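so my prof wants the structure for this chain in the tokens format not the other one, which i didnt know existed until like an hour ago. anyway here's the sequence
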Amino acid sequence: MTEPVETIKTKNYIADIFHDTHAESPREFYDNLGTLIAFHSRFDLSDNDYWQKEELINHVEQNDVLALPVYFYEHGGISLSTSEFSCKWDSGQVGYIFVSYEDIIKEYGKLDIQTATKVLKGEVEEYSQYLNGEVYGYLIYNKEEQYDCPDSIYSCWGFIGDKYIKEEVNQILKKLEENKNENDITCC
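here's what i got, hopefully its the right format
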């Protein structure tokens, strides 16, 4: 296993946060509201290969489709966004993420364009983080047994971005410390 990205310690426990090198793509593993279709000569970024460029443009220009442009930036890494990047040399539009009005109504019970737009932007941001390896997991150990008994007592993987992983780890550590005397957890 690689070195932890971060270690969080409490009185009785240690939590190590790692890069998740075996993460599933959020475009394949999760249910997504939008369909992302992008054309790039070196990267396969699309949800499927059924679209031609002209066909895609005709589809997203329909009145019953919410579509956002997808921009690509490559400079030491890959970034995707629904907004243009400032660098004209290393970036440009590569496709669209879109959803039909019918599917928005199925999902929300009404035509909620504002929420659907926010979700589509979030899907592109999440995919960009995944493409850049910003996926994490954690292992939590009992401090006393970390080296004698290296099995973790809690673990979870597949956190895209670091926004929620630290919050979850800290909540678990807090709960473990509160319950330490009541339910002495051991891994062996």
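also thought this was worth mentioning. The first helix runs from residue 26 to 29.
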